[in-house]
């Protein structure tokens, strides 16, 4: 694979297995996503690689306008990406393991303009109800 100076992502035609590509710096091996420069050494020598698609939900630090289903996910390779988490809201919290389900979810605003394309992940484990619901009924 040849180094690329800018990310070149494959087109998502909706067919086949979900894929997520990230970049690895050829100099310092740091992983990142959707960048022109390595965040550690500022090299432009970034190589695109396919992610395994497994990660962990990270603590949220987004503003109040972020949809409830959008969470940062730390992928096994070390980079963090904003994802839409498909699962019951009570089960989605930092530390929960997730797996890539779809390459991207398109959010459109009135007028048909695409605002953001976030990967979609699903919970790896079955979600149990939290203790606060016990004893009801």
Automatic annotation (TrEMBL):
Lineage: superkingdom: Bacteria
Alphabetical list of Pfam families matching this protein: zf-ChsH2 (PF12172)
UniProt domain ChsH2 rubredoxin-like zinc ribbon: residue ranges: 13-46
Family matches, as InterPro entries: ChsH2_Znr, NA-bd_OB-fold
Designated name of the protein: Zinc ribbon domain-containing protein
UniProt source species: Streptomyces wedmorensis
């Amino acid at each position: 694979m040849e180094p690329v100076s800018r990310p070149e992502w494959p087109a998502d035609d909706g067919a086949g297995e979900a894929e997520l590509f990230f970049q690895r710096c050829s100099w310092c091996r740091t992983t990142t996503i959707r960048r022109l420069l390595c965040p550690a050494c500022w090299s432009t020598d970034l190589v695109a690689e396919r992610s395994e698609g497994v990660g962990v939900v990270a603590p949220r630090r987004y503003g109040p306008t972020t949809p409830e289903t959008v969470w940062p996910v730390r992928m096994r390779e070390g980079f963090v990406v904003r994802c839409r988490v498909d699962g019951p809201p009570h089960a989605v919290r930092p530390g929960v393991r997730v797996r890539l389900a779809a390459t991207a979810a398109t959010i459109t605003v009135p007028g048909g303009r695409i605002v953001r394309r976030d990967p979609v992940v699903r919970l790896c484990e079955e979600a149990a109800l939290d203790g606060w619901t016990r004893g009801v009924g």
